[in-house]
Amino acid sequence: MPIRSRSLLAGLGMALLAAGLLTACATPAGSGGTPAPSATSNDDDSNEQEVGAAWLDGGRMIGIVTTGSSTCIPTAEEATYEGDVVKVTLVEPAGDTACTRDLVPRVSLVATPEGVDPAKGVEIEVTGEGWHGDTDLEGVADLKAGGETDYLPSAGWTDVDGQFVILTWGSSSCAPAIENTEATSATEVTVTFVTPPADQVCTMDMAPRGVVAAVEGVEDEDAETFAILTGAEFDNVRIPIYAN
User: Can you give the three-state secondary structure of the chain, one letter per residue?
Assistant: First the structure.
């Protein structure tokens, strides 16, 4: 399938470890968040939730999209590959941290497990606390799992119309936030990030940061499409949006 559109750098292993430590929090009792279902059986359709997925980092990473509080993003445990299915467990943050009461798409990042060929695609099963979901991630030519990251931004479509995930690298405490997303041509989407305050203090790590974006007006997501990243630390960075 065609491609569409601050200190020391840690090694890939440390970067992926940071992916498991992305900022997250869980909804305490009385905070107004939606409680998770109590049952955990994957055979119970009443506990099934919609999930999405996107290829990132040249196929080395997968972004798992769920819906919930934007400040309480679940952490993805190391994915496994069993019977041609990628299995991912999402862990909610500690229950004593307050969450915002919004309900938005957010992304949890996980390294693509050994044995998966991103060029062929894969089925993904996701299990959370009291719920489960699944999705199919289509193959994309030239993507490969494994190897060392190049620490460059990347993006990938999910199976939701107009929705894609953007991966950037930098301080885990200063992840970029999207201000605006707009289709500026038939094959380009301009993503403008919020300019951070000049006195912003950030941790000196190098971690993967994921954000979910949405755009209207893209006529053919199967065609080669590019995201133009601007604002914040980005100066018109042009990257392909991997298909799905």
Answer: CCCECCCCCCCHHHHHHHHCCCCCCCCCCCCCCCCCCCCCCCCCHHHECCCEEEEEHHHCEEEEEEEECCCCCCEECCCEEECCEEEEEEECCCCCCCCCCCCEEEEEEEECCCCCCCCCEEEEEEECCCCEEEEEEECCCCCCCCCCCCCCCEEEECCCCCEEEEEEEECCCCCCCEEEEEEEECCEEEEEECCCCCCCCCCCCCEEEEEEEECCCCCCCCCCCEEEEEECCEEEEEEEEECC
Average pLDDT over residues 97-114: 94
What pLDDT is stored for residue 222 in this prediction?
74
Specify whether the CB–CB gap between 189 and 225 falls below 8 A.
Answer: yes
Cα dihedral 4, 9, 13, 16 sign:
negative
Beta bridge partners of 178: 193
Instruction: Name every residue whose Cβ is closer than 8 Å to that of residue 77 and which is 6 or more positions away in sequence.
Output: 20, 88, 89, 90, 91, 110
pTM of the shown model: 0.81
